[in-house]
Amino acid sequence: MTTLTVTDARQKLGYWLKRAERGEEIGVLFGSSVFALRKVPIQAADYMEQEYGLTKEEAERAAARIRAESQAAVASGDYLTLDQLDAQLATRRKARRRSRSRKAA
User: Fold this and answer.
1) How many Cβ atoms from other residues are within 10 Å of residue 90's Cβ?
2) Domain, as residue range, for 14
């Protein structure tokens, strides 16, 4: 295992992370403790539980509620869908191009 001080690790953190990603054991000394730099898998299955304390069922209910609220907001005109926003921006860009070409002429 390669061990580093916090200062050494901080100065070339990207370099040490790349080495750890390749499977090398890299330790950082902090006081009398050693902390390992290693790649860890992201487990999306339990993310909601770890991050927010939600069970799978609670997360599914929350997602359904958020979808329903966003669809209701779009239907009432409070929010735009991405397609609607894209269309509005395209219209504005065309209008700006026309006004610039008229000024240049």
Assistant:
1) 10
2) 2-37
